[in-house]
Specification:
mainly beta; ten-stranded mixed sheet; 2 helices; globular
């Protein structure tokens, strides 16, 4: 669990330091993945960053996860969540030969979803945060292996 948390933190820190702007789409891509859930980390009223393995959860694999990016700033994400599939304006969009990173907020800035996929390894991290303005926010961080 600590290893996963450190990986996420370092990835987000590296992203923050590397990119001065929120949109950096360097290439056009159209990718489709099938992803298998490996584990989840939950933070809510019941769990405080508890790690649950896929075998302990109901099947939450992604049947068809699609990414469509066009320069200079179009990014479409389908199959990960209804929220992201309907979102057309992401606050953060990064696409390059190694990673695709995205982050979107609802209109009230109280709900966010973000994700990062390593295109070479197929590792996908998807984070949902509910109640951003609350002291008792909830997080659902899912780790997938995609091919």
């Amino acid at each position: 669990m600590i290893k996963s948390f450190i990986y996420i933190s370092l990835s987000l820190l590296a992203f923050t330091l590397s990119f001065a702007k929120n949109i950096n789409i360097q290439e056009d891509i159209k990718l489709s993945f099938v992803c298998e859930l490996e584990k989840k980390i939950l933070k809510n009223s019941e769990y405080n960053y508890k790690t649950l393995l896929a075998k302990d959860l109901d099947n939450k694999n992604l049947g068809k996860f699609e990414i469509d990016a066009k320069q200079p700033e179009t990014l479409l994400i389908n199959g990960l969540s209804l929220f992201l599939s309907k979102a057309s304006k992401f606050d953060v969009k990064v696409v390059n030969k190694d990673v695709v990173l995205f982050k979107a907020f609802d209109e009230e800035k109280n709900y966010s979803e973000s994700g990062i996929i390593n295109r070479k390894s197929g590792e996908l991290v998807h984070e949902i945060t509910i109640g951003l303005k609350s002291d008792n926010f909830e997080k659902d961080i899912s780790f997938y292996s995609c091919s």
